[in-house]
Amino acid sequence: MRRFLQATLVVALFVTFGSVGTADLNPAALAYKLPSQIQWVESSNGAATYNLVGDPAKPGFYIYLNKWHPHHMSRPHFHQNDRFVTVLSGTWWVGTGPKYDPDSTVPMPAGTFVTHFGKQIHYDGAKDEECLLEISGQGPANSTPAETK
After folding, report:
1. Tens of pLDDT along 105-120?
2. Taking the C-alpha atoms of 88, 123, 145 and 60 in order, what is their torsion angle to the nearest 10 degrees?
3. pTM of the predicted model, to two decimals?
4. Which single residue of 77, 106, 129, 139 has CA 20 to 30 Å from 116?
């Protein structure tokens, strides 16, 4: 009888707490996407992106997610405008200057906030683990190659 009561209590807790998250939210009050609903767009440089707000290719404010896959880095480049980057997960590796040298990059762990200043040369990416970034700024966010060979 005791096991039956314990099992009944467990089932009651699941039913009670399981229904807490099922309320409908007013779409006029907020919009959201769960991680499973994000449709990543893969690029040829070893990263995937998802636009949250605006369009980085057009004038105006934008925010997007950038997911660097392990063992991929950009080559030295710069952007016309400042960009603001928050490391959400993993470790992001950042280098500066026109000479590509992944061994000289500096780790930026989750929680780090970085400003990429406009027209300043940098390169970045992931080493042994995936890293997820939130990047915001004013578009267009063109990337201009700037590597010294």
Report:
1. 999 999 999 999 999 9
2. 30
3. 0.81
4. 129
The 10 Å Cβ neighbour count of residue 116 is 19
Which has the closest alpha carbon to 119: 75, 85, 82, 147? 82
Tokens of 9: 């209590």
Burial of 36 (0-12, 13-18, 19+ CB in 10 A): exposed
Cα angle 65-72-105, degrees, rounded to a multiple of 5: 95
98, 76 Cβ separation under 8 angstroms: yes
Q: Measuring CA to CA, which residue among 94, 79, 85 is closest to residue 146? A: 79
Closest C-alpha among 138, 146, 124 to residue 57: 138
The pLDDT-based confidence of 21 (bands split at 50, 70, 90) is: low
Estimate to the nearest angstrom the gap between the alpha carbon of 94 and the chain centroid. Answer: 15
Q: Say which residue the tokens 């039956």 belong to.
A: 4
Q: How far is the C-alpha of 92 from the C-alpha of 30, rounded, in Å?
A: 31
CATH architecture of 40-145: Sandwich (2.60)
Q: Which amino acid is at 147?
A: E
